[in-house]
Amino acid sequence: xxxxxxxxxxxxxxxELTIPEDKLEEQKEASEDCLFSEFYxxxxxxxxxxxxxxxxxxxxxxxxxxxxxxxxxxxxxxxxANIKIEIKSANYISEKNFVVFEDDxxxxxxxxxxxxxxxxxxxxxxxxxxxxxxxxxxxxxDVHKWVLALRSPVFARMFESGMKEAEENKVIIxxxxxxxxxxxxxxxxxxxxxxxxxxxxxxxxxQFFNKYDIHPLKDNLETYLITVLNELTVxxxxxxxxxxxxxxxxxxxxxxxxxxxxxxxxxxFDILDKDFALNLFKGTFCHMSEAKID
Length: 294
What we know:
The chain is an alpha+beta fold. The protein is 35% helix and 22% strand. Strands 1, 2, 3, 4 and 7 form a five-stranded antiparallel sheet that branches.
C-alpha cells in the first residue's frame, strides 16, 4: 500500500502597524477606505501572503472600529491558522482557529467603538504584548517569547529551563552590537527585510543566527551571501563563514578563491585564518600525484 508523507510547515507572523495621527484622523468619519499594512510573504510557505486592515469608523458598522486579517493564495494549499489579538487597554482579546482551502480568506472582527479608538485616555496602539527583553550595549528591544521559541531551539530551552533569563524575562547579549540584535529580531518577524542590511551586518547576522540556531533564516541568509561573492568581498565572507560554521558559504568561498587567486587580486587576504589560508594555497598550487611504475 502506498503511503503519503504529509509535511506540516509552521510560519509565525506578527504585526506592528505604525499609523500617523493625521492618517488616523482622516478616517474618523465612516468610510469605505481603510488603513492597511503591506502584504508580506509567508517566508517558508510559497504562494502565501497576508496583511491587516483597520477601519476606524466602519462603513457598514458606523461608530465601530473593525480590523481585517487577509490571506492571499496563489497556489492551492490548506492552511490551519491560529490567530491571537490582544489589546490590554481596550480589554480586548480575540483567539480563533480557522482553516483555509485554496481560496483567499479574510476575517473581520470588531475592535472597539470609534470613540474608544480616538480617546486619548486609551492609547490602543501604544500597548505592547511583547513579554521578553533582549539587551545589548545598554539598549533594549522587546520581543514575543513565542516568536523566539519557534525560531530558536536555544531560546526555547532557555524559557523551559527556569534559568535566570527565563525568570527575569530578559537576556543580555554581550558579543553582538545592538544594531545586529535589533535587526536579527526584526528578521525573526519579517525575513524579507534582510535586503535592508549592509554586508557587514549580514555577516554578523549569520553569526547570530548560527549561535542561537535560528533556521531557516541562517540558510536563507547564507544563500543570499553566496550571490554577492567577488574578489572584494570573498575574504570577509570566508571569515564570516568560518566563524558561523556556514558550510555552504565556506565551500563557495573556497571554490571562488581557488579559481581567482591565480588570476585576480584578492582584497583583505590577510584577515583569513592562517591555517585556512595555508590549506588553500596547498590545494591550489601543490599538485598531488600518485607514483606510477613503467
